[in-house]
Amino acid sequence: MFIQMVSAPCTKQDDMRALVDNWCAEMSDRAGWLGGTYGFTDDDRFVGVVRFEDSRDCELWCQEPEAGAWWAAAEELCSGAPEIHQSGDVSIMLGGGSDTAGFVQVMHGKVGNADVLRHMTDTEMTSMLEQARPEIIGATLIFEDDGTFTETVAFTDEESARRGEATAMPDEMAAEWSSAATDVEYLDLHHPWFASHR
Fold it and tell me: What's the rounded Cα separation, in Å, for the pair 96 and 138?
């Protein structure tokens, strides 16, 4: 899998959503495009996390004329420069997420210990997380060559997510997380929407 996360300040939310929905409709039966998760933060930042089968599928799309036209239209709706994070170094937890999620949190930060971060998506830690935080219904995690990571976590709903945050992690998990990531930025998508390949 290859994941690309784009974020940018955007106050024209209705226009951006219409543009994204049109793009997703065009991409819905395109080979190599898997889907995406989208939303806006409280401080008017658009966030899009798009999944491709591999980097080549993303590259092929970016080379097409309509990609340039779509990107130009998106930039016109933004009030600042877009920020892009992408990688084919992907770990998946609990199937990667769900289009039924009521709340999504995107985290971006520096990798303190990549092995520990990867371990948090393996079977043992996932089983522990399912017991401790049943409102988490999936996540994707990417690592970039510059030593940063982006994790997208899907929750059943925000109320349950906030209750879960207030509950102390198991000691082992808390210790691992504190050593695994630093300078973490949290992007909360209170009203996410989704698109998937047909």
Answer: 5
Q: What is the pLDDT of residues 26-56, one digit of tens each?
A: 999 999 999 999 999 999 999 999 999 999 9
Cα dihedral 158, 162, 168, 169, rounded to 10, equals 20
d(CA 43, CA 86): 23
What is the identity of the amino acid at 181?
A: A
**CATH says 89-189 is which class?**
alpha beta
pTM, to two decimals? 0.90
Asked if 176 and 119 count as a contact pair (C-beta separation under 8 A), the reply is yes
Quick check: do 2-87 and 89-189 share a fold? yes
Which H or E element spans position 82? Answer: none
Going by CATH, does the domain composed of 2-87 fall within 3.30.70.100? yes
Amino acid at residue number 65: P
